[in-house]
Design goal:
37% helix; 6 strands; alpha+beta
Length: 188
């Protein structure tokens, strides 16, 4: 085996073994109380509404909203993400959830972001509440709202089960996707 291959293999193994430790450590270090999580979710929604008026319009028609104020994503070839959030129906917190993702491929870096999923009908809310973990991309139809999609949305064109907005991105990692993210109920 050449030195180049050895170095590449060592970096690959180091990234694969260090990531779960760092993700697990940051999870324990940042585990929020219910009160902290509620406050962070409120602030995150206000930030989203300030920067994206379409999200605020959609919120008026939504049956519920899942808010993940801070998700941490890191990776070097193999990556992972973790965040905790709340399910709100109106101003009432109904349950607490975590958002966990794993990925592999051409990636390097770390970043944080928040996201909100507006659940538009009772079937979508029931699905989230009654599954043992919801994987985005399986179950209710979720539309990821970017600037192009947002231009064509209005309360009369809302036809899908859920709309997701990603916001507050910070850090150095190319691309954000919540496809394949698993959302599971947690206790607080």
């Amino acid at each position: 085996m050449t030195n180049t291959r050895r170095i590449f293999l060592a970096l690959l193994l180091a990234g694969a073994t260090a990531l779960p430790i760092s993700v697990a450590t940051s999870h324990r270090a940042n585990a929020a109380t219910a009160e902290d999580l509620n406050k962070d979710a409120d602030q995150a929604l206000q930030t989203l509404y300030r920067t994206n008026p379409v999200a605020q319009q959609i919120s008026k028609s939504a049956r519920a909203v899942l808010v993940f104020p801070s998700v941490i994503k890191a990776g070097f070839v193999f990556g992972g993400s973790y965040g905790e959030g709340v399910l709100r129906e109106g101003s009432t917190i109904v349950n607490y959830y975590n958002s966990v993702g794993a990925s592999w491929g051409l990636q390097a870096g770390a970043q944080s972001y928040g996201y909100a999923v507006f659940l538009m009908n009772n079937a979508a809310v029931d699905y989230v509440n009654n599954t043992q973990g919801w994987e985005i991309g399986i179950g209710p139809t979720v539309v990821i709202v970017n600037e192009g999609v947002a231009k064509n949305l209005s309360t009369s064109t809302l036809k899908d089960d859920a709309y997701a907005f990603i916001f507050d991105q910070e850090g150095l990692m190319a691309g954000i996707s919540i496809e394949g993210t698993k959302i599971s109920k947690i206790k607080r």
